[in-house]
Amino acid sequence: MTEANMVVATGTVPGSNAAATFDLRADAIAADHGFQHWWFYRLAGDTQEFALKGPATGGVPPHLTHADRDFADVDARGLLRANVDMDIYSAGPASGVLTSRVTFTNLSAVPQTLDLFCYTDLDVAGTSGNDAATGNGQQHVVTDLTGVRIEIRAAGADRSQVGTYPTVRDLLTDAVLDDLDNTLPPFSGDYTGAFQWQARTLQPGEQRSWTVVFAIDTAANRVPEVEHYGSGSSLQPEIFTDTLPLQDNANVRQMGIYLKNALPNAPFGLLSNTTAAPGIPFLNMVLWVDPNPPMQFPIGTTTATGDALFVFVIPPSPYLTGFPIYHQYFYADNSAANGVGQWTTAIMTKVGRL
Ligand SMILES: [Ca+2]
Ligand SMILES: [Ca+2]
Ligand SMILES: [Ca+2]
What we know:
The protein is mainly beta. It has one helix at 167-173; strands spanning 2-3, 6-10, 22-25, 34-43, 50-51, 66-71, 80-92, 95-106, 112-122, 131-136, 139-143, 149-153, 159-164, 187-189, 191-202, 207-216, 225-229, 238-241, 246-247, 253-260, 267-273, 276-282, 285-289, 295-296, 299-301, 308-314, 324-332, 341-350, 352-353. The protein folds into two domains: 1-220, Glycoside hydrolase, family 65, N-terminal domain (Beta-galactosidase, Chain A, domain 5, Distorted Sandwich), CATH 2.70.98.40; 221-354, S-adenosyl-L-methionine-dependent methyltransferases. The protein has one helix and 29 strands. The strands form seven sheets. An eight-stranded antiparallel beta sheet has the order 6-7-8-16-12-11-10-14, with no helix packed on it. Strands 17, 21, 24, 25, 27 and 28 form a six-stranded antiparallel beta sheet that branches. A five-stranded antiparallel beta sheet has the order 5-4-9-15-13, with helices on one face. The chain is globular and about 65 Å long. The two termini are 17 Å apart. One calcium ion is lined by residues 48-49, 171-172, 174, 176-178. The site of one calcium ion (CA) has 8 residues, from helix 1.
């Protein structure tokens, strides 16, 4: 992923229980502050943590500011689908933001309870032994004598741990059950750190996202957000975006809201509004977006491959910062159990400020 000074990459999706390599560059000399970064999970009853590992299916190639990898059936257990989405933007000549988001969907017919973990090894300015971290259980600020400051935020995390490489990573890649022990900053040395969200339960078909934000030499006071939630009529149709809703006072930006794996050549609608709905029944379907005005409900026809796209234009207006919009797709399907149509899960998008 590249935008101006920002150049970010993760290596090949791990084939075994390991962390992916990670490049994090934000300045003119292209100093690489990253070493490894990845997501791990543990389902209730498991006796160890597991990396999201390959083969990754259905992912799109990295392009511009976005990369994603899809795990259609995590570890072939028939229990979870996972999607990793990363987005970047430049915030100045030597600063920028990376968001790393994982979205889990419960593929099974019973509730699934999982712990998830986000692991990161930073080597600020490309040197590993001289880093220092401050912060707390949801935020690590890592720096070194160069003055480069990288803030890692994990909103809503329950536990955290920092330590010298490879102690924290080994907790996640070994064959025993571990919870992070809340060894928090201050820390100095070869920084590695992780965050843990504990015992999150997904109902059958339910989808939810967790995000970690990296802010490199920027306050990043209002970071754009994307979050999946709700459940669809089936696991097949998916709503997604490959852009962050970013309000930029110098440029018009766009955000695409996509539908895939829907019925081909079918009438579809996209319901968008500023408030969510708690899954309310409506015409034998289920609404995750408030249907009351003001709302937007564009209608079109899906492509021959069952795709659709609606592009929102984000004008250069500071007043949009912090503005949430919720989205859900619907399409007609005469063979649907309700005789009407199908619906997707929903996504929340919140406009952030450059
Ligand atoms: Ca360093
Ligand atoms: Ca372990
Ligand atoms: Ca390190």
